[in-house]
Amino acid sequence: MTRQISLLLTIACLIFSESLLAQSKIDSLLPVRGFCIGAPQPKQVDTFVKFINEELATRKVNTLILRVDWNYQFQSHPELRDSIALSKQDVKKMVKACQKNNIRIIPQINLLGHQSWAKTTHNLLRVYPQFDETPHVKMPEKYVWPNADGLYCKSYCPLHPDVHKIVFELVDEICEVFETDAFHAGMDEVFYIGDDKCPRCGGRDKAELFAGEVNKIRNHLALKNRKLWIWGDRLIDGKTTGIGMWEGSFNNTHRAIDLIEKDVVICDWHYERPDQTAVLFASKGFNVITCPWRNPKNAVVQTQDMVRFRKSVTPVMKDRFQGMMQTVWSGAGQFLDEFYGVKVNTEAGENTQSACFKAMFEEIKKMEESK
């Protein structure tokens, strides 16, 4: 009997050692293997948990960013909840699934920019219009781009004396319920900042305003040992690089790259071309993650680039190239329908979010097996 127990223990140790070796191998290849999506509606939570268990975990995804925004039943500011929003119980289902599968879960609330979309003002500025950076720009009945006001999305004023009390209460609450050590603040595509008509921001340096907001959020999170993640586009010079006004900045916020704290994690998204700006962020001292969207071929190239960067740079630089993250910009329900074949957009061909997701993680698996 003692021999049998000893043999069983030996086999268990060997299996455990092999599991650790396999995990070590993929972590060495790409420390971050991420997936970013809008938080599901309450009725979609169970399907999403199934997706975590059966699709994310099996692909060795280890980071899940959920764009929550107002889709939570906030207790600190119930006036800012969506009419249909996740309960604490809904969130805990997803947290439990991630913990079981060793997936780090990071919630996002869009801060600074993206306070509106098309003709809709989102909850923060709808409830607290005094925070609006550009109150003179009225929301149109029918939205078109380009437009005379340069309106893409509204921003809140980063220098308003009351905005951060509310914002940080939301951030603290969402981090607590998600049991997380990090928070994603969005901060992409900020076109309205330092507006000339703003009594607080007018005439100020836009790079300093942007950096000031990043550092303020970062410092607040640091009080509870949490890290800040943001999108990287406002830190790229869109004109000099030729990347343009969407994936880069045309209003001089790019100079903030030298003004923000180096422990801010940069999510570097490029969707039309596999631009290699991860090198820019790593050379500036930031940890960077490359983010594709719906082009499978680009995602494969970007994955290969990230692995190549990690192999070819100095030991000091290597770990700044953190990995890859698939981004999804439809609702969770729409993505799940596409992924499971419930509703397929035949016109999109191979360029879909689910195809990109599958291609990227298939490439990671292939590179892991050949390593």
From TrEMBL:
Gene3D superfamilies membership: Glycosidases
Q: Does the keyword Repeat apply?
A: no
Q: Which reaction does it catalyse?
A: Hydrolysis of terminal non-reducing N-acetyl-D-hexosamine residues in N-acetyl-beta-D-hexosaminides
InterPro entries named among the record's database cross-references: Beta_hexosaminidase_sua/sub, GH, Glyco_hydro_20_cat
What is stated as this protein's family in its record?
Belongs to the glycosyl hydrolase 20 family.
Offer a single GO CC term for the protein.
Answer: membrane
MF term (GO), any: beta-N-acetylhexosaminidase activity
Region forming the signal peptide: none
A Pfam family matched by this chain, by name? Glyco_hydro_20
Phylogenetic lineage: Bacteria, Pseudomonadati, Bacteroidota, Cytophagia, Cytophagales
Active-site residues, Swiss-Prot/TrEMBL: 189
Record protein name field: beta-N-acetylhexosaminidase
Q: SUPFAM superfamilies in the record, alphabetically?
A: (Trans)glycosidases
What are the record keywords, sorted?
Hydrolase
EC assignment: the record states 3.2.1.52
